[in-house]
Amino acid sequence: MNDRISLAHGDGGELAHQLIQEVFVDTFGHQEQAKLDAAILSIAHSRIAISTDSFVIKPLFFPGGDIGKLAVTGTVNDLAVSGATPKFLTASFIIEEGFPIVDLKKIVQSMVEEAKKADVRIVAGDTKVVEKGSADGLYINTTGIGWIDEHHTVKPESMQEGDSIVISGTIGDHGIAILSARGDLGIQTEVQSDCVTLNHMIAEVLQAVNHVRIMRDPTRGGLATTLVEICEDFNVTMEIDEMLLPVRREVQGACDILGYEPFYLANEGKVIIIVGKEDEGKVLSILHQYEIGKEAKVIGKVIGKGKGKGKGRLFLRTPLGSTRRLDRLSGMLLPRIC
Amino acid sequence: MNDRISLAHGDGGELAHQLIQEVFVDTFGHQEQAKLDAAILSIAHSRIAISTDSFVIKPLFFPGGDIGKLAVTGTVNDLAVSGATPKFLTASFIIEEGFPIVDLKKIVQSMVEEAKKADVRIVAGDTKVVEKGSADGLYINTTGIGWIDEHHTVKPESMQEGDSIVISGTIGDHGIAILSARGDLGIQTEVQSDCVTLNHMIAEVLQAVNHVRIMRDPTRGGLATTLVEICEDFNVTMEIDEMLLPVRREVQGACDILGYEPFYLANEGKVIIIVGKEDEGKVLSILHQYEIGKEAKVIGKVIGKGKGKGKGRLFLRTPLGSTRRLDRLSGMLLPRIC
């Protein structure tokens, strides 16, 4: 690892993984918690989940949302995919001197609206202001707390060969929407960010399916990076089929021009759900009832379990019928994506 | 209120109060929670407290601590003064491209050490990197969760005339240490930041005294601003005696040169405890057993309760025997103090 932070340390890819592993996970000494998006904590009579995220997205306003909406959906979704019912959020703001109050109000209003939809309460906050040039407009941290219901939880250790990998909808929308909104790559699209809270839909899946193996929201680093993390953390090998990936035509078009692959692009309103083959129909029929899940599909399966050479890996079956190993997003794709 | 954010919106003084009231408290709709440093939340079989704080202190390393130590002590103390036993922290980092990893490691190490002393676990984290020029080195958010023991809690509504105001030690140390470390005001002192976790000492006070009225840690805005907030939030009138305020000689000296008043300077390891007159001796004897409380003193009292003209105010008795009304810190004293 280089001795200075580079942008690639923050993009959710390989260098970010190394940095987090080396600097934070090892130092704080929690290898287990690092495997899920939220910390699961036993308390006397119940269990709570806690998740934290700072949002530095650029631009602050984008098609489909703004940093405030994103700050709520991001943390709510992290709790939801951990199997928790999101309940409370804190919100902390670092604001650059000179930032228009009217914009701040809009952003706070977005937070309130999104929190209401998700049925969570914003219960504590903090504000800091830094001198002009010391922050880029506004950064927001949200930390969320949710309850874990013992009866409806996820059991990643139970993943096994043959399990189905479900994605709740099209991939890459957020990544392309932000890229387009920035205008610095010369592309213009109609794509909106998929930024949305998923907790109610996820709760219905957890209620209906007793044996959900694992859920994750594929944000920074995209679908592929998130699946690679699951493969490595839980010693499973997976294969996804490129032909099955739901990708909007405009997103695929932008990727073709820019040389990106949609499965490395960020999403902010999608969930990966891994379940036994026997449960995939039930999961799909629930997701399809929701506007935000109507394009849900099975995109691949777990093809092996266990440690050893060639294990714990993610493979992509290409349209030509060949398979290609996918790794974490390597190097920087897009800074400030969330 | 101006239509743009100024530095004074972030210093804990009058403009900051207005901003928070107008933009956050009103919008989020929690007038009650805004009165305490942490949100107190009922859960099925217990109650938890949640507090969040972003740290943007400059410089990152200062006499007596660094941003990592501060990020732990700040949130731990916010929970402790709310009557909670701090248990869990989350830590979220916004890092500027180019930041030395060796410094990041030092800072994370400080967090771990301070968390250990405070007996709290850092249970979740997040890292974002922003381009050079988009942040000033490093910002840290910590969010803390603690348990509320029904038997040992604070009851601000029970404040009454005659109650004693105790401060746990010298005021203004943090403010002067940071000012000196920055070097931009041309003063040099030996003063160290008082940055320290107070939770064990506070827990002993709560165990011993059944009727603690309220506790607060006088950080941004200092002793005076914090007391004014208590006066306004709970409709009490207070008087503190300038002659009784514990102030280090070096801090007073720096204040004399700079035209500051020590009771507006930030502290990061002090607690204000308000108790009935009958309990002040017990509180002092506990505080005096701790190195961090050995200079604890009674500095004033509650002189009235109720609403109306001239009520809900803070007065300072001066060495000349006259009294002077103190308001919140107005205008900017020091940006980036925590």
From TrEMBL, chains A, B:
Pfam families per record: AIRS (PF00586), AIRS_C (PF02769)
Coiled coil feature spans: none
Domain PurM-like N-terminal stretches: 37-147
Positions of transmembrane segments: none
Origin: domain of life: Bacteria
Ranges where the PurM-like C-terminal domain occurs: 160-310
GO biological process per UniProt: protein maturation
Family: Belongs to the HypE family.
Protein name: Hydrogenase expression/formation protein HypE
